[in-house]
Amino acid sequence: MAKLNEQPATAADLLPLALTSYGHFTSMRVDAERRIRGLALHMERLVRDSTIVFGTAVDTGRVRALVASALDGREGPCVVRVTHFDPTVDMGHPDKATEPQIMVTVRSAGELPPPPLAALSVQYERDLPQVKHCGLFGALHARRAAQLKGFDDALFFSPNNHVSEGGTWNVGFIDQDGTVVWPDGPVLPGVTAALLQERTEYKIAPITLEEAKAMPVAFATNTSIGVRALSAIDDTPMAIEHPVLATLRETYLSVPGDEL
């Protein structure tokens, strides 16, 4: 069930979001003890993105209380999504959308790590890539195109042939020297990537699509999947096991979750 503020969301509540996709969100994996890795970073994202999207602040204490309420009666790992949107938004006057509300939804979480994924390279860049916004058409269209060709997801690259991110995940690489490399470019600052960067050695550098395929290992990260190996980029196979990749997974799983 979706809850808007403290009440079950109605079809009328959700219609403006469905018709405009104007809003932003964050998704958080909750472990069996109701702890969340990177909770503070998720709250910082909501505050930052609300300023960009609506020009308003977010009461993070209220967000945490609403998430805790939505988790009542739930058992086992799950993924909570907090969507921030104005139910009164009008397509003709988005400047009037200045009173965003909080919607919380919950779904079951999969096992960590999930199986490797094969990615098809697709030329695409999200609007406002630094914001985790609700405008997912382009990313989902790219994912659909990849899946229709037998791949699991899309890996985006820019007009100048530099890779950036995946459909709903950050991408990282391990080079020939065993160094973790994150692409330099306009991407969503992912919470899982940030947690890894706080705890591991790495570098950030522009990576062309050809350079990406020449890397021994590529991996995807987000809060739902943790650290997930890429088995292929287009028709180029990638190694799905590597000591550094194993260390990244262990590092992520060792991050203590925060209490709501």
Description:
The radius of gyration is 19 Å and the shape is globular. It has helices at residues 11-20, 39-53, 60-70, 137-148, 191-199, 209-214, 243-254; strands at residues 3-4, 7-8, 24-30, 35-36, 78-85, 101-108, 117-123, 153-157, 163-166, 170-174, 180-183, 203-205, 217-222, 226-233, 236-237, 258-259. The strands form 3 sheets. Strands 7, 8, 9, 10, 11, 12, 13, 14 and 15 form a 9-stranded mixed sheet that branches. Strands 2-1-6-5-3 form a 5-stranded antiparallel sheet, covered by helices on one side. The protein has a two-stranded antiparallel sheet with strand order 4-16. It is of the alpha+beta class.
State the separation between the terminal residues, measured CA to CA: 20 Å
Helix-strand category: alpha+beta
What's the count of strands?
Answer: 16
Counted by DSSP, the helix tally is 7
Short structural description:
This protein is α+β, with helices and mostly antiparallel strands. It is built from 7 helices and 16 strands.
Q: Topology of this structure?
A:
Blueprint: E1 3-4, E2 7-8, H1 11-20, E3 24-30, E4 35-36, H2 39-53, H3 60-70, E5 78-85, E6 101-108, E7 117-123, H4 137-148, E8 153-157, E9 163-166, E10 170-174, E11 180-183, H5 191-199, E12 203-205, H6 209-214, E13 217-222, E14 226-233, E15 236-237, H7 243-254, E16 258-259
Parallel strand pairs: 7-8, 7-14, 11-12
Antiparallel strand pairs: 1-2, 1-6, 3-5, 4-16, 5-6, 8-9, 10-11, 10-13, 13-14, 14-15
